[in-house]
Design goal:
three-stranded antiparallel β-sheet; initiator methionyl aminopeptidase activity; metalloaminopeptidase activity; 11 helices; EC 3.4.11.18; eight-stranded antiparallel β-sheet; 21 strands; WH-like_DNA-bd_sf; alpha+beta; Creatine Amidinohydrolase; Arc Repressor Mutant, subunit A; 462 residues
């Protein structure tokens, strides 16, 4: 989620079996020759069954049906057991289904979740300590002290990886944006094993298209359809105990946009490589911009330079707080503040064929309760009621109107506006560059561990 500057009866009837019996009858003629003639017997009707015979037959039929039902049920149970067995591999560990539905915690019986990409810190001028961190016993001991935290983040990251892997092969042009978001969120909720504020989605699914760079998710009734020529940014988050994975990627179906997508992916990887303990945030921004703006995109015979969107940034992350105070610019300049040990960051970059600046536009869908808001008295009962819903279900994590609808909230528009006017809740409208341009985004969450930098959300896809 960007930081901004400023889901035939057989048997009894046999047709009375039209029985034809053939008899051989011997006849002697005058010449004593013996001939055989075939003689047909008339059809015989079976005598009517008496009451007790009919009842007995009925019981037999019923018992047969019952036995058939029992066999069918037994077969169904066997089929269920077979399916359960099929979910386990040779190792005895559960295997993921397709589409994914098995919670990540059930896939790893030892409850130790996969590490992300491990990288050594960059060596700064006249400073050899970055290299020493990787082998230092003292730093390794500090690492072990935070293993529980790292494991929670890795669990959230694995849920993110498996969800996006499914979505990347499932999404097709012609689907509505609501359909896409509901599929993604439904899968993610199962994999993260949603449990109130302890585990779940960290913010609404962003699916911003084309000139819209960030913070768009459809509200109820939005008819928008994904088209072949769209460039769509899929930005969603998962969390365990408030430990957030903020990670995004760009989908495009027409290969003519490949250079734009590649530019932003390259710039994000550059930012990740440059990040590290004691690294100045402004230096990361300069490195990102240099790589981003070395690309250009040719569309319909016209060449467009690819620009970093200068008023969008990466950001630090803390428990239940997606924007924790520090911003990671994607252009040169900015703060000389340094990154510190055990901090978490979302390194995200945005490229555009437009002006390289975004502004608020379109209907708002994203909202988030302010982290440091003091107590504010509320007069409207509807506002109090809505705030209780927000506190119980989202806390200080971002939410959207679709999620309020899902919880059964109704007629909340006035109450939501009241909470925003009083500064208790902040609105985050879609952020757009000029119409007609195209934007792309890639993002990863990194942990600055005492020994190394871990790109915890890294996957085989990006």
């Amino acid at each position: 989620m960007a930081a901004v500057k400023t889901d035939i009866e057989v048997g009894e009837n046999e047709d009375d079996a039209e029985i034809e019996e053939i008899e051989d009858v011997e006849e002697t003629n005058s010449t004593n020759e013996v001939t055989k003639k075939k003689k047909k017997k008339k059809k015989k009707k079976k005598p009517a069954e008496n009451g007790s015979a009919a009842i007995e037959k009925e019981n037999i039929a019923e018992n047969g049906e019952a036995n058939g039902d029992i066999e069918k049920e037994a077969g169904d149970e066997g089929e269920k057991k077979k399916k359960k067995r099929n979910r386990k591999g040779k190792s005895g560990k559960n295997q993921q289904t397709d589409p994914p539905s098995v919670p990540i915690v059930d896939l790893f019986p030892d409850q130790v979740f996969p590490e992300g990409e491990i990288m050594q810190y960059p060596i700064l001028k006249d400073d050899r300590t970055a290299k020493d961190r990787f082998t230092s016993e003292e730093k390794k001991a500090l690492d072990r002290m935070h293993n529980d935290i790292y494991n929670e983040v890795r669990l959230a990251a694995e849920a993110h990886r498996q969800t996006r892997k499914h979505i990347q092969k499932w999404v097709k042009p012609g689907m509505t944006m609501i359909e896409i978001c509901e599929e993604l969120e439904g899968v993610a909720r199962k994999l993260i094993k949603e449990n109130g504020l302890q585990a779940g989605l960290a913010f609404p699914t962003g699916c911003s298209r084309n000139h819209c760079a960030a913070h768009y998710t459809p509200n109820a009734g939005d008819p928008t359809v994904l088209e072949y020529d769209d460039v769509v940014k899929i930005d969603f988050g998962t969390h365990i105990n408030g430990r957030i994975i903020d990670c995004a990627f760009t989908l495009s179906f027409n290969p003519k946009y490949d250079n734009l997508v590649n530019a932003v992916k390259d710039a994000t990887n550059t930012g990740i490589k440059a990040a590290g303990i004691d690294v100045k945030l402004c230096d990361i921004g300069a490195a990102i911009q240099e790589v981003m703006e070395s690309y250009e995109l040719e569309l319909d015979g016209k060449t467009y330079p690819i620009k970093s969107i200068r008023n969008l940034n990466g950001h630090s992350i803390s428990p239940y707080r997606i924007h924790a105070g520090k911003t990671v610019p994607i252009v040169k300049g900015g703060e000389e503040t340094v990154m510190e040990e055990n901090e978490f960051y979302a390194i995200e970059t945005f490229g555009s064929t437009g002006r390289g600046v975004v502004h608020d536009d379109m209907e708002c869908s994203h909202y988030m309760k302010n982290f440091d808001t003091p107590y504010v008295p509320l007069r409207l009962m509807s506002s109090k009621s809505l705030l209780n819903v927000i506190n119980k279900n989202f806390g200080t994590l971002a939410f959207c109107k679709r999620w309020l609808d899902r919880l059964g909230a109704t007629k909340y528009q006035m109450a939501l506006k009241d909470l925003c006017d009083k500064g208790i809740v902040e609105a985050y409208p879609p952020l757009c560059d000029i119409k007609g341009c195209y934007t792309a985004q890639f993002e990863h969450t990194i942990m600055l561990r005492p020994t190394c930098k871990e790109v915890v959300s890294r996957g085989d896809d990006y």
